[in-house]
Specification:
Layout lengths: L5 H6 L1 H10 L6 E5 L3 H7 L4 E5 L1 H6 L2 H18 L3 E4 L4 H9 L4 E4 L26 H8 L18 H10 L11 E5 L11 H13 L3 E6 L7 H7 L5 E4 L3 H8 L4 E5 L2 H8 L4 E4 L15 E4 L9 H14 L12
Helix pairs in contact: 8-11, 9-13
Length: 333
């Protein structure tokens, strides 16, 4: 089980992949939140997936939520699992494994965030070390299984159908970027994580002056932001929205560099090994940085005070390292 948000689940992919390899002869079922479903399938870390809409269970009609939880418990009991590994380890998921009657329960020990007494696998994982990167903390959960930890990012390969779909939707943008595409993601789940949109627009203008094509990505949570983006960004920038998560991965793989706030899409960029410039507030924890070998972090003060010049320098420095033909890095299945 891994019921973290999209970024958390991506940071947990090395642990999920290690479990898959360790239990090569077992049937593995992964229970998780709904948003990362397609990413998890693309990563091929399980034989079967059970997406659960935790938000609907939490915020929806209470009677319906109770009925859905009852159905879920009965479904798990019928499957007769031999073991459960709870990587994110929340009280409700700890209880679920116990109530469902799974005999072997290995739960992450998250101090006040989990119910350690419900975990019966021996030896137990050590108490969560919050100073460690999240990927390492997930790997620590499975150390009792004597699995050698490997922190290397899990690389995802866009499907050809998604590549073709993105090119069909935006034929003058994707497919032959020639190293000139710079992705910008101005949104984030929390406003405190957002670099000002006018600064994103100024960055786009500087990139256009350099002969580059800024591509502004808007996800479902940025739907209401589109009118402001249209007003603020200079002519020559391209707005891309309406992509599925797997199409978004395909589009990311066609970029020379991706510039974004501290939110899920920067973790998706890491999945396809796209060089990334991450804009982050000085108070944000560094233990959740994308697991990306090609990551540049800009954040030496409050995020709103980060200058356009510093982000421009970081972005062009990445571009200067991109050799001709660097977009050929995209691998497709």
């Amino acid at each position: 089980m891994h019921f973290g948000q999209l970024g958390d689940v991506i940071l947990g992919l090395p642990a999920l992949q290690a479990l898959r390899e360790h239990f090569a002869d077992a049937k593995i079922t992964l229970m998780h939140g709904k948003p990362p479903t397609e990413v998890l399938k693309l990563a091929n870390v399980a034989d079967e997936y059970i997406p659960v809409d935790r938000v609907a269970l939490r915020d929806g009609n209470k009677l319906k939520s109770i009925a859905e939880m009852g159905r879920l418990i009965l479904d798990i009991r019928r499957r007769k699992f031999d073991m459960v590994v709870d990587l994110h380890s929340l009280p409700e998921t700890n209880l679920l494994g116990r109530v469902a009657g799974i005999p072997n329960r290995l739960y992450g020990n998250r101090e006040s965030r989990s119910i350690d007494s419900l975990s019966n696998f021996r030896p137990k994982p050590a108490l969560e070390d919050k100073s460690k990167h999240a990927t390492d903390r997930y790997l620590d959960v499975i150390l009792p299984l004597e699995i050698e930890p490997r922190r290397a990012p899990v690389k995802l390969f866009p499907r050809q159908e998604d590549v073709d779909s993105v090119v069909a939707k935006y034929p003058n943008v994707f497919g032959d970027g020639g190293g000139s595409l710079v992705g910008l993601f101005p949104g984030a789940g929390n406003p405190s994580r957002c670099w000002p949109i006018d600064k994103f627009a100024a960055l786009a203008g500087a990139l256009i002056d350099d002969g580059l094509l800024p591509v502004i990505f808007l996800g479902p949570e940025e739907f209401e932001m589109r009118p402001q983006v249209e007003r603020t960004f200079p002519e020559g920038a391209v707005i891309v929205d309406g992509l599925s998560i797997t199409e978004f991965l395909a589009a990311l793989s066609d970029l020379a560099v991706f510039v974004g706030n501290d939110t899920g899409p920067v973790h998706l960029a890491a999945c396809v090994a796209t060089p990334t410039v991450l804009l982050i507030d000085e108070k944000a924890p560094l233990t959740y940085l994308p697991n990306n070998h090609e990551l540049t972090v800009v954040g030496d003060g409050p995020i709103a005070s980060i200058s356009v010049e510093s982000v421009y320098r970081a972005t062009t420095a990445v571009l200067e390292q991109t050799r001709p033909g660097a977009n050929d890095k995209r691998n497709v299945e």
